[in-house]
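Chain A, query sequence.
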Amino acid sequence: MSDLAELVPDVATLRAGLATSGYLAGDALATALLLSVRMGQPILLEGEPGVGKTEAARALSSTLDTVLIRLQCYEGLSSAEALYEWNYPRQLLAIRLAEARGEALRDADLFSEEYLLARPLLAAITHPGPRPAVLLIDEVDRADDEFEAFLLELLADAAVTIPELGTRRAVLPPVVVLTSNRTRDLHDALKRRCLYHWIAYPETQRVAEIIRRRVPAASGWLAERVAVAVHRLRGLPLTKPPGVAEAINWANALHVLGLSTLDELAVESTLGAVLKYPEDVETVRAGELSALVRNA
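Chain A, predicted structure.
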């Protein structure tokens, strides 16, 4: 990690690097990411959907000038799907070619590096460098308890055993970022192995600055109005309050339509860019539309 220590010697340097990558992080998040990088310890980022957890990992990989390897978790995800699998079509083709030539194949001929397909976890462990990969284990709360237990061993040892080939141990252990939307509680054992940071909704001015960076064609005035409107929407009894991602999407939709004023017509025509449940759209249309425009 000495190279990383030179690359990001302090919080200010890392925060500036994240900003250059288009991600505005506060001191607390930048500190947590720096500790993860420098201590070689996984970090668990939790927060509401759309607050920038995944983007934090993307920006970190860009700042460290290394590859981002992403594992998207889902219900039923198995360790085999996340680690590696054998290229069965190529193995079958090799068997048929050998039979046509009258040759005999051993197991070692079929279960070799040539037929191994690395999935995200193995790819991160075997990444050759020159810097460690950033391994993003996204939405780990969507995976099953069994997969979460499997991660404990992998994160502790930075190694995996392939029965046919032996143990693969990381020469450069990856920088591991786990994200969770808290759809379920993670086990304490996993949390103990990780640094932790909760990413809250950013304040209005930061949201406006993020919009200006991500949608540079939109006017600064529009970015501020969208940020204020999104902040007000989060105060309503909505099924899914909008996050930063929705604010960016909303500003972009307004720009694409050539709308430079956030009036009732503009809001009405673009609500689908910021609200994702029909009940939420109806809540705003039923009585909050005028107040939303007035406050924005």
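The chain has a mean pLDDT of 88. The first helix runs from residue 2 to 7.
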